[in-house]
Structure formats: C-alpha cells, structure tokens
Design a protein that fits this description.
This protein has 182 residues and is α+β, with helices and mostly antiparallel strands. The chain has helices spanning 49-53, 63-68, 105-113, 127-132, 166-179, and strands spanning 21-26, 34-40, 43-47, 70-76, 79-80, 84-87, 90-93, 97-102, 118-122, 136-137, 144-145, 153-158. It folds into two domains: 31-41 and 152-179, no CATH class; 43-145, 3-Layer(aba) Sandwich (D-Maltodextrin-Binding Protein, domain 2), CATH 3.40.190. It is elongated and about 60 Å long.
C-alpha cells in the first residue's frame, strides 16, 4: 500500500477533491462525511519565559494588555484567525497587535521561540516545547482561544461509500486506532 500524503492548509472537500481521507482541526464538519473525533484541539496562549519577563504589564494579563502586546497570528484558508477572551462567562473578541502573520504553524512557532510575540496555538502542537520550558503558558485573567466557546477537535474524515474499499477501511481503522485520544 502506498500513502500519498498532502500537507496543506487548503480546505479540501471530500467527494469533490481527489482525497479519500482527511485529518482536520476545528469544528466537526457539516459535510456529508463521517467525522471521527481523534482528540481535543485545545488552544493555549504561549510565549517564551524571556518574552513574558520583558512585558510591562502585570500578570495575569487582562484584555487590554493582551491587545497591546505583540502577537503571532495564524492565517487559515478563510483569513487571519481571530482570538477571543472569556470574561465573566462571555467571549469577547480581541483587537490584536500582530507582529507576524503566517499560514505556517512552524514559522509562527519559530517566531515565538525567537521572542517575537505571543501565539495562541493548539496545545498538542507545542507540547514538547512546554515540557522543556522553552515555551510557557501566558497567565491571563480569562481563557484565550481562537473559538468563542466552540467544541474544537481533530477529526478523521472520510466518505461512507469509500469506507467499503478495503484499502480505505484499513487506513481509516489504522489511523483511528493509533491516533484516537493522543
């Protein structure tokens, strides 16, 4: 069996694009596909300890402090991803001061590691840096996320009819068994 893998941030549509299986972060799609949840997609506001030490604001950061500090923002297929803060059980949009905007998570992580700003990123993508202490969670008065209260996850997507094909079924089952909950 040959795996032909494509890594990109384009929003592919199963059934229309030549793709059999997709792994997508975000909300469960409303497409006519099967969506198996592999894991949560919890976002964390991170920076280097050195960047946090140089802040002229007291910790934890409030909304206005976050809005005045350099940020690193991700650009998805539909534009720059906004951030929100949870204040008194109400999600409020943040008017950010971006230093770097990119559609590449590795480039934004490198910018964070080089003390360029704060980055709101899926926890799973930077867990090694959190473990080593190279990046740390930024203390804030409210939870910061890219989704105002939505249930974000990482989903394995495939068409029900394609699951009948042995190689697709084998691959879907393998991915689900090995990545579910990790």
């Amino acid at each position: 069996m040959v795996f032909d893998l494509t890594y990109n941030d384009d929003l592919s549509q199963l059934g229309k694009d030549p793709i059999d299986i997709a792994i997508r972060g975000g909300f469960a799609p409303n497409e006519h596909v099967i969506a198996k949840r592999l894991s949560d997609n919890e976002f964390t506001l991170i920076a280097t300890p050195q960047f946090i030490d140089k802040l002229e604001h007291s910790l934890p950061l409030n909304k206005s402090a976050i809005e005045s500090i350099a940020t690193l923002q991700y650009r998805g297929p539909r534009g720059v991803i906004e951030w929100y803060i949870l204040n008194d059980e109400h999600w409020e949009p943040l008017k950010l001061t971006p230093k770097v905007i990119s559609n590449n998570g590795k480039a934004l992580t490198a910018a964070a590691l080089n003390h360029r700003g704060m980055f709101c990123v899926p926890s799973w993508s930077i867990c090694n840096y959190l473990d080593t202490g190279e990046l740390v969670q930024v203390p804030c008065e409210g939870k910061v996320s890219v989704s105002p209260g939505g249930d974000l996850g990482v989903f394995l997507l495939y068409e029900r009819t394609k699951y009948q094909t042995p190689k697709i079924k084998l691959c879907v089952d393998f991915i689900y068994e090995n990545l579910n909950g990790r």
